[in-house]
Amino acid sequence: MTDDHAPAGTRVGVDVGGTFTDLVTVRDGRIRVDKTPSTPDAPDEGVVTGLRELDAPLAEVDFLGHGTTVATNAVLEGEWADTALLTTAGFRDAVEIGRQTRPDIYDFDATKPDPVVPRDRRFEVPERVDERGAVLRDLDEAAVRDRARDLRESGVESVAVSLLFSFEHPAHERRVREILREEGVDASVSLSADVLPEIREYERTLTTAMNAALKPVMDAYLGSLAAAAGDLGVDAPLRVMGSNGGLMAADAARERPVNTLLSGPAAGVRGATHVAGRRGVDDLITMDMGGTSCDVSLVRDGDPLVTTDTEVGEYPVSVPTVDIHTVGAGGGSVGYVDTGGALRVGPRSAGAQPGPVCYNRGGTEPTVTDAHLVLGRIDPSGFLPDALGRDAAAVREAFAPLAETVVGDPEATEAAARGLLDVANANMRRALRVVSVERGYDPREFALVAFGGAGPLHATALADALDVPEVIVPRAAGVLSALGLLISDVVYDYSTSMVRRLDDVDPAAVRDAFADFEAEGRAELRDAGRADDAMAFERTLDLRYAGQSFDLSVPVEGDLDGDELDLVEERFHAAHERRYGHASPEEPVELVTVRLRTRGLVEPPELAVEERAGDPDDAIAETRQVGFGDGDAPTDGRDTPVYDRERLPTDAAFDGPAVVEGSESTVVVHPGQRARVDGDANLVVETGGDGE
């Protein structure tokens, strides 16, 4: 099997978006970017089309990484397999009851999402174990066989099995699976002891049910894609980006599709981390802004923060996931006035069709992209095919109702556009504060990495407002998720809940759990072609104060003896202080969950940078009036140079105001800021913030 720890000759990353499928090929250190229209009804077709059109011998591809939205779209659209649930007697409706929280506390008509498994597909199994795994009632195998026969006759496609406290005693779940097979149930089976062996009955059952519902969908997709790639001559094994920010084997993704729900955004965070790390920046905030939304995340010490408290659509999913906060603010977000007379932006989007008004594809409502056009910041004809874009008259007409309502003058288009951008920026500024200030981190100590088609248009203003000292715009800003696939490690996460007072924890039992996880991780990494010297293992314990309903992950650094447990407890108090602003060292602490992350290390490919000499002024394509809103009136415009990013010399530096146009994104450099090109051809904008 290929060992892709070493730099590959030809590496291909494929990220499927809503509009385009991005392909990044690295060969002999040179990056090539290709885009092909996505095919939502058959997403593998867009990928195969892109592979077929690559300007590289497919037989020489020795790494193929893939970021997919198949699982995400299935959840958002409710298009999943016919699924049944087997659970402990008395807990049939736990997955529908959920938590006693309201989506909107003031909305008396608020409804919960439809359960993943409808009630007529949920079945009870007589059995019971206690919270320590002691069997209180043996599994009633005769009853399980009756249920199995019912399932066999129903033609169900997938089965989820979630029994009470199975993380302490998985034998009953495993026996249920054996009986289903013995009775001829031809369906995929997901056990909670495998999918999420952790406390919290609702989240564990829901996540297991969702995994079961997605398995046939992902199995068919990845199976078809792998076969098609093989038919094209690609011998490299398919790797899929997981929500935790690491790659996984395609077979693992087919077995645990719930771990791929944030595949694409996680790849973007990994790409941003790599770009910043090459500059020696290990603390950063990432900002991925596309057409419909903006995803922000925080990276500390070179590793993205990971959470097990994530929502996809309206469903909480408790698998390890890069901590990404999303707001409905993108280039296509529509501006409007609500019933209270306030200007709003998003979450409704004009999408790709018809898109913003300036795209000349039939859009009639003012969007964020249109506002940038009004203020002179973008020229859509420079990045849209078929000479579309820059229909200024149609844009001004679209802004007229907004300007009349907000400003009182239908001709005050610039003021309305500026107001629309201010509201959009306020939404994104709140998102950036959620992942930084509200997590106990000072944004002044971080860099902001902006990517996606629209991210660099807003990042410099947001960084200035939060006193972030520098903004990094990667040279591959528009396809950073695809590039991130090429530099990501293979990562598998293992966990099991062991709820005990820390004083009562047997260190040997925890050491045994870590050892079992490590053995399983080594086996999976070897199957993925990793040598033993390319493996790393990270141990953590989830802790909480006794009586709390939430916990924090704390690293385990030494041998797990009594002294190390004391140090772990001290780290927990410090983490609680940073996260919530207080700690209670005198309170008893509980162990909740034991976690191990196994990492198969990948050596990123060296990327060549074309050296260009010359004067930055030679890269000025034009000068135009650009509105920045920093003068006596919010519509003040300035004569502003517009630089062609592809023509900027290596190590170029220039002061704002400026606009830098690239093939994938546009960067706005505000007055008082300074931009320069670094050794990797990234554009770095120094905001003058308070960072040290």
From TrEMBL:
It comes from the Archaea. Residues 204-493 form the Hydantoinase A/oxoprolinase domain. One of its GO terms (cellular component) is cytosol. GO terms for biological process: glutathione metabolic process. Residues 11-184 form the Hydantoinase/oxoprolinase N-terminal domain. Residues 509-679 form the Acetophenone carboxylase-like C-terminal domain. One of its GO terms (molecular function) is 5-oxoprolinase (ATP-hydrolyzing) activity. InterPro entries: ACX-like_C, Hydant_A_N, Hydantoinase_A, Oxoprolinase-like. This is Hydantoinase/oxoprolinase family protein. It comes from Halobaculum magnesiiphilum.
